Each structure stands twice: as C-alpha cells, then as structure tokens.
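User: Sequence for Carboxypeptidase below. Tokens please.
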Amino acid sequence: MRVATQALLLGATTAALAHEQQVLANLGNTAQQPLEHVSDGLRNPIDHITEALGEMPAAAKGLWDEMSLLVPGFVEKASHLISRPKPHTRKPDSEWDHIVRGADVQSMWVETDGVKHRKLDGPLEAFDLRVKAVDPSALGIDKVKQYSGYLDDNENDKHLFYWFFESRNDPKNDPVVLWLNGGPGCSSMMGLFMELGPSSVNSDGKPTFNEYSWNSNASVIFLDQPVNVGYSYSSGSVSNTVAASKDIYALLTLFFEQFPEYSTQPFHIFGESYAGHYIPVFASEILSHKNRNINLQSIGIGNGLTDPLTQYSQYRPMACGEGGYDAVLEPSECQSMDNALPRCESLLNACYNTESAWNCVPATIYCNNAMIGPYQRTGMNVYDIREECKDQQNLCYTETAWIADYLNQGKVMKALGAEVSDYSSCNTNINRNFVFQGDWGKPYHRLVPGILEQIPVLIYAGDADYICNWLGNKEWSEALEWPGKKDYNGVELEDLILEDESYGKVKSSGNFTFMRIYQAGHMVPYNQPAGSLDFFNRWVGGEWWKA
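Assistant: Structure tokens for Carboxypeptidase:
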C-alpha cells in the first residue's frame, strides 16, 4: 500500500524526503547519471552544493555518484539549500513591555576578590530580548502569569519567538523548564497545545484546560527554533545544531536578566525527537560559560535522535515484532532491512569519523531510504506503530491543523505580539537545510559523557514510537562510553508506578537514567498525560539523581 506524500515528519523528518520519491519502490527504474552529467537545464546542481559545502573531496565523489544512481532525485534535492524568508512586519519598540539590550548586559562588570570581570559571559552584544506581558483572559489559556516575545540577533537578522507560562503551584520556588520540539523545523507550539502545555486546542478552535500540564509544578518556556519555524523568522537560516546553540544561550541569559526572580530556581531543558541533537549541544554551550545566570540542573530527551549509528540498527527489530508490538512488515522486507544495515552502518561510520557533510548527507539519505522507507510505505503512523497514518497532510494527527488554525487567528497573533504573516507547524525548508548540511547524521551523543560529569541526563521513550523508538534509545544509552557505563548497564529496569499501576520501566545509575513509557508514541505526554506529568515531577524533584 502506497501513501500520499507527507509534507514533513515531526520526528526523524528526512524520511519524508525519501518518501517524496517513493525511492525504494523505484530503485533501478529511474537511475540517474553520474554527477558531472546531472543538469537542471541551466546549471549543474552540484555547483549549488559546492557553494554551500565547499569543494567536494576526491574521496567523496564515488559515494555521491553511487547515491545519484541509487536514489532518484538525490542530487537535485541536495542542491535545494535555500531557506525562504518568512514575510513579517517588525513592531516598534513602543509596543513591547520590556526590551533587554544584550550590549547593556555585556557591559556590566562585577568585582570578586579584587578582580573585575564581566557579570555574564557573552557574546551578547548583537542580541536583544523583547518581552510582552500576555493577558491570560485575552486568550483563555490558563490563569497564570505569561510572557511572549522575541530574541533578536540583530547582526544576523534572526528573531526567535518564545512563550513563557509561570507555574500554577509555587513560581517563586518551582523549577523553570525550556521545552523544544524537534523536526528539525517543527514549532514548539505543537508541544504546548498537543502535549504538555496548559491548554490543548479542540476541533472548534477553542482552548481546553490541560490538568496534566507540566506547568502544574514548573514554569515552562516554549521556544520556536531554529529561525523560520512557527512564529520565528529571519532573512537567513540556521542549518546546524551548533549555530542554533548560540541563540539559545543568549535567549536564556537575557530572559533571566530581565526576570531575576526565576534565575535562582533550578533550570532544566526538555525536548523530543531532533531535540536529541539539540539538547546535548545546547547544554554543553551553557555549561561552557563560567559566569552565567542559567542554573542548569538537568536535561531530558524524549524519543530522541541522538546516536544515529546505534539507533538505526533497531529499526528492523521495531518494525518486525521485537519491540513489544506486532510486526508491521513481511519477513522478506525484514530481511531486506537486515541486508541493508551493514552498508548503512558503514556510511554512518564514515560520517562519524569525518563529520563532513560530503559523507553525512549520503549516509542519512541511504539509511533513511533503507531503514525507514519500508515502514512508511505500509501507511502506518511512524509516530505510533499501533495505528495507521490517517491524516497525511497533518503529520498523521488532525490536532496539528487545529493548532495551526488557532495560531493563525488575528486576535491570537496580536495578543502574543507575533510579527509573521502566518503560522505553520513545521517548515520543510529548515528540515532540508539541516539534512543537506550534514547535521542529521553527526555524533552529538559524544557530548553526553561531558554533560554527565556535571549534571544528570534523562532519556525517555514512548514504546509505540517507530521513528525514534525505545529500542534504539535504550541501545545507545547502554553503548555510550562514559565512566559509569558498567554500573549503569548492570542496573535492572524497575516499574514506574502511578495509582498502583505500572506505566513504564526505569533504570538509573549515577547521573544517567532511561525510561520506557508503555502505550505511548513519539509524543509521550500526548498518549500518557498522567504518567508523563508523574515522571516529570519526580525527575525535576531529584528522585533519581539527588543523593
């Protein structure tokens, strides 16, 4: 059964690029010419690629020739590295309640033991933070104190949108959390309205109170990043995780400078999917600054893509009945995936060894064709192995359309200070930029041991997800090389209990914790709202990591 083209996948989104051509169904039927013969009628597409990536190494040419023969449209897709600016109208400063100038913050000095030093590490000079107090009664979303606005990188014309909700419980003492959706290129407003925020949006476009919101006992910041995602915008683009990390550090630094009442509470970063790439980099960036006002205490990654080389080995087991659910594929397709895995792993090893886009792009395309493509063609939901994808145009979930309709209302955009002309849940161009700049296949898990030396790390996974499945997340967490590996691997999984029922399993040692959440897909709070709030509250409360 073939399914219609999806615009973009919420999680491991490169699969959508493969699916656009239904590559595996056509291998051998529409073979392309080697690179030097590929032309769009005006200009060789490889010229566009070298402009973005630099000159192709001689060793990479054979690999790209092979990919152009195997994967229809490979070179043309790789040449589409254009990020289209979003139409926008910047509001005058008079319309904002607060503006924090990074240059002013950067100029602040303090004296410690007779030595003068900058109050906060930079660079912050190019950044401003604009803040709008949101009237809860205007939108009917919770009753707590709220702020929205933009972080502006004036030097690079980048503007990141955020929305902050104070804790319902004890905001003077409760922790503060940054939430990030993945994609790359999907808005965190989806996490807000579909998963863990104070309200959801129903089919009538009305907000509905969420009693299991994570702001029940924590203040939460939802951020649209990278630029040109959701309400964020720029005339340029960000196409790699490291570049995005500078924006996150500036945002948090200026936010806590404006609101010092939140800066002393414990701070945590949580996210899902491609946030498995984002969060290790963002946390490392924050921890690298000695003089900071960000009290980072832990990170949590849900159904993340963090170590592709290890995780890709678990696609075949998950699709073929070894992940706790019935097999989706026929035995012959499972065998084909087994046959393709050594080549996939070889390509990813080359990506890991060089971290060059010339190696990482072919690895990503080949592996996603071979390991995700067969599952996609069944028409099953890549985010939940238990069900069919019933809404191809909206990432398999009709709720994403309801959210987009709500956030495109004029009164909503006005109340939040949105400066773009429209909102969309995901941006395909951003996704392609990250993929074809080689970011997808890079080994960001190598940052995790350094993070574990300083703060705790939680890896959790809904066990019905396919795209970033629990088998792969458990596998990479146990394969990770760090001083506590032996002790961590020796710990048995124990039940997570809520109201006398188990909703998952947990294992924890030192600063490292893994959770398998039962009967939940890619978006754990969507399927298991009570369970997700339970483990979140217990985690930020330090149950698994405080002595």
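Residues 1-42 have pLDDT under 50 and may be disordered.
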